[in-house]
Amino acid sequence: MVGSNAKDTRPKSRLAQGASALMCAFSLIALLPGACAAQAADEGGKDRAPVPAAGVEKADAKATGRNLEVLEARFEPIAKGKNIVRVSVQNLTAEKQVFAVHIQTRSSNGGWGTQFFEEVTPRETKECRFAFNIRGDVTEQTMVRLHFYNPASIDEFVSEEYFLERKYNGLELERRKSAAAAETVPAELTDTLIRRLKAIQNFLGKDEYEKVWSAFTRDYQQAEWWQNYGHFEETMRKSRPTSWWSKGGFLALEPQGAARRGDILTLTARSVDKTWTVDFARDGDEWKIDWIDGYAIPVAASGNWMERLLPKMEKRTTEHFDIYYFKGSTAERDIDAIAQEREKVFKEVFEFFATPPHGRARLILFEDKETKRAETGHQGAGWAFDNNMVEVYSDTEKVDPAHELTHVIAGGFGEPPAILNEGLGVYMEKGHEWHGVPVDLTTAGLVRDGRFVPLIELLKRTEIGARHDDGEVAYPESASFVKFVVDKYEREKFLELYRRLRNGDSDRVLMGNVKIIKEVLGKDVDALEEEWKKSLAAEKAK
pTM for the full model? Predict the structure, then answer.
């Protein structure tokens, strides 16, 4: 990576600065059934008194146009691993309503998120219980976010259309105290748990995944597997799953002993060089697995993947790139064209920022997503961080050469909201297209179909890629907005916005961004949106 001398006053890209990592991930969030507390089969941890969530307020059903009111959200004290939130919701109508909650967490070991659905009968006040996962230790940086929805049906769920949001950090929610001292478990009960573990291992070894699934508590199904049996089975069929324990690791477990903490019995077991803990909770006449911990997560273990992998790969060096690829791969066949194209795009992106090209980038190419994910722990086809780009390259799938490179270079010019950051990445792709369709044409279709996301809502987004329909909506719409600003107000005005706007989800940041937009473009957000829509209609009419 090449730095600059003290006299050079040009804006510096992430290539020269070594700025913090910026990821561009494409992922899907599963749509899953929820669990009402009255219906839940297991109540693991129910003896811990739940505490009210900080800042929870009642939703104004009339103001939001919704038929449901969230009366309260109560968290049990939180910690790494499985956690519980209870939500009280009231149906204000004489008709059956669908209630949904999306729970998102972020911690030192990454993110977790999914949505759960409940049916609320006419005039009913329903108490619902949801299990969720915090993957890392709880610190002040830990985030838990709740989005509440009232879709017409599960099939008509739209991730942007929540009527209430509540967000908490690790300081706002009570933390779970250290577990009480473990009590000795009688030998007979220890033998019972060992036999139960061996029976589950036997099911797994025979690929009887439904029997294994039924040996999990509902809490464990929700918090670890999103209550998605298909995801569990798919994971077990992989030799090296990402973010979850492996079939091979579980089958290798050798029980060591058991202890009791409250209603939970913990079986300690060894697998290769790791000590696992398997928590069991009583469910009727059975002991079921309530949590598993202690195994090595491939995502966490992949932190040194470049140090391990790059020396084994082929390397092509150009003026601004170090390109790594596997021998015998599609990338090796096309390496001359790849090198030439990347240098061309490198200069084009810097030209957009009106800055001479400088610095170096590292490009690492994999043949397919599965190999990329297994080696790096990252999902999706493309990933950018610091001065690195990690991409899939094959005859069937390629990442546009401009997208991730734009993120790498643009990181030194500003940290704007996701609409500008991801929008610029797509805008720089060949022909201003997303999945082969011009972004303006796609966005005009969103307006026509009633799926257009208001500009003010996109300005609130701190990231794009995590919601299930971002690929259809937020990516192309954001790129269309970037194109509109560049075409209508010229590149210099867009670059001023890129440098001055800030990424953040607080009202203060949003209002500051709205003020800057009016200063730079001379229009408020509502007027700008109408002008943008008119330009889309005119473009479509051509």
Answer: 0.54
